[in-house]
Every structure is written in structure tokens, then in C-alpha cells.
# Entry
Amino acid sequence: MTVVCLEFEQPQNLQALAEIFYRATPQVMTRGDRFLFMDISKCLGLYSVNTFIKRTLVTLRKAGIRAKIGVGEDVPTALSFAVLDQRDKLALPIDTLKYYFDPLGEQMELTQKVVKMTELLKSLGVRTLKDFLKFSVREISTRFSTVGLMAYYRVMGESPVPWKAFKPSEVITERHEFDLESPVDNLEPIYFKMKTMLDRMQLRLRGKGKRARQFDIILRQEHALTPAEQDYKISICLQLPYVSQKVILQVAKEMVDAQVAAKPIKHRITEFSLVVTEEIPYAMNQKDLFNQRREENEESFFQFVSRVATRIGEKAVFFARMRESYIPEKTWEREAEPPKIPPPVDRLAERPLRLLPTPSQVHFWGKHICWDDNVDEVESLDNREIVFSEWWENSLERVYYRLTTSKGRQLWLYRTAQGDFLQGEFD
# Structure
């Protein structure tokens, strides 16, 4: 197991941060409001540990958050490495036993017993986990009962911490509160904070494989006569959700300015929120290597469409496509983006109906092939196909091909670093 632990300098909304990293690994767990654990052992076929750490640092920088990172073979070790900034498990001080006994901070009363046990061990000259492991299981159970035995097994790696299922939020909300002693009376501080909040909102959505189609900006006023007047809401509809973050911020500013000009805010602002009201799937496209300005031209066009829609109304500017209907006004419908020709779907090569229970190794001598007790002459080789294992399994690569013999038999073989193997035969 490979576990990454993030220790944040300040208390954070760990639900939101867990959603940001949900795209990298679904196994996410938290401790309080300062520690976030991620199990990336099943994802090392997609990225290395160093690559994950670099991406994590970039993501935290976008969110404006600073954290220390620890990588260990289990949850308590990663937690200890993050807190103490060490990389040698056996050299960890004996004080880290409390992390091994209760890494999630859920049993504080029993943890106090571990702290007392730690003080006793120090008086006996035990300073590190290496010294602690010199005791036998019998000595630990006799002197420190089940509490010490649990900590001992955790240090030995024989009692893993069960992972809790993580559930992303159904509604993405980002909130910022201003100082109650000095509420905001203009929009500049709101725009200043909005950029970071939009970044966090988009990162959380991307963690779920989504993009924002529509979101609300809610400004909470200080002194409102009625609860209905307290929240000043501006709805932002993105006609083209695939525009950049910079364009989304610009469209939001223009929409807020236009609505505030038509309906001024009566009181100072104490809090404002971003609430996603409509989501669409997040789709990624490969860049055009032969026309690198294509993305720039599309971005400029999308920005123009979004700004025009902000000016004249979201229902006045859109892309349309035809659909079947007997009613004339229902023969078209709005699209979220320009229609594109779907890419061709790859088809798998033909597979044999007969497979051997276990692949049999074959050998080639000139134009002849030999396997088990069979010898035949090779007529042709075709249908070369490279097959990889699933990303969560061990790395595996096979080159399959169809071999036709002089007797008309069609064999299905594959080649690896260990040699050539017969796996099946076509009828």
C-alpha cells in the first residue's frame, strides 16, 4: 500500500479538498480539519509517486493552500512522516505511537493511555520505534494490555486501518465570509476573492468528472428588512462551459455589474457564495498538433459568444441542432457546445473461439513452428495487435498475431519478453 498524507498549516474544508483529489484516487479519508489521506497504490499504473506529488503541489498552489506531504506504506506511517518531516520509519520517535494506535483521531480517551505508555517507555530508555519493536508480543501484552498490543501490531504493519467510503457533495458550494467589523460596501473585494473560489469550484467539479453549466453568486447583505432581501442572487449561465477560467471570471463580472447597475445592492456584504446549480460531463480533447492556433481561435470565439449571451440574455444566443418533431417550434433544441463529428470507434480484432487451458510455448526454426508434439510450416503472419493489461494490474504487454500454417491451421499466438506462446486456434 502507498498512502499520501497532507498536513495543512491552517484548518481547511477537507470535504472540498477531498473532492479535488477524488479524480486522482477514489480512496480518500480525513482526520479532523487538517489531515487528508489518499491511497494511490491502485493508481500507480497511471502515474508515479513523484508525479502525483508534483501535481498535488500545483493543485494546492491553485487553491492557495500550503501543506506538508508524507508518503508511507500505511496510514499511520504517512501521518507520522507528514507531521515530523521524516522518511525513516524505524527512526521515528516513540511519541508517534499515538498516531499508530489512533491515526484518525477517533479514540481520544484510549489515546491518552498510549501517551502514558509512551512516557513509561521513555523512562525505560525506549526512544524510537526500532527500540519498541525489540520487545516481544508477549512482553507487550503482559505490560501494556490490548492498547499497547494494538499499537505494536500497527507498527509491525499487521493491523491495517480500514478505509471509510468517501461520498462527494451533491451540490458544490464555495463560501467566503468577510470580517463582521468591516463588511464590504463595493464589488472589488468580491472580485478579488472570486478568482480563487472559481478555481476551487472547478477543481472540485473536475474531481467528479464534471464542469459547471450554471452557477449562482449569492451576496448576503448585512441589514435586510426581510430574509428574502438578505440574499442577493445573480445567476450565471455559461452558454459554452468549455471556456477557460479567465473567461468565466470575466463573464461573471460583467453579469454582476449589469445586474447591480439595474438593481443596486442596498446594504453592505458580509458573505458571498458560489453554488453550482447545473453540471455537465467533463470532456477532454487532444490538441491539434498540425494547427496549434485552432484552440486559440475557438477560445476567442467561445469568449465572444459567452459575452454576447451575457449582454442580450442567455436564451438569445446558443447553438442549435435539428430533431424530429411534428410541431415546428420543437424541431430544434439547444446544445451546450458546437456539434462535432464523433471519432471513429476502434474495433477489436477477431478472437478465436477455442482457447487452450494454459498457453503453450512455441519455437521457430527457419520457416517452421514447433509446439508440444506438433511441427508445421509457417505460411503467413498477420493481424498484429498489441494488448496491455488494465491500469490497476501489474504491467503486462503482449503482441498478438494470427499464424497460418501450410496445413491450413490458423493459430493465435502472442509474444512477450519470455518468448512466443500459443493461446488459441481459429476454426
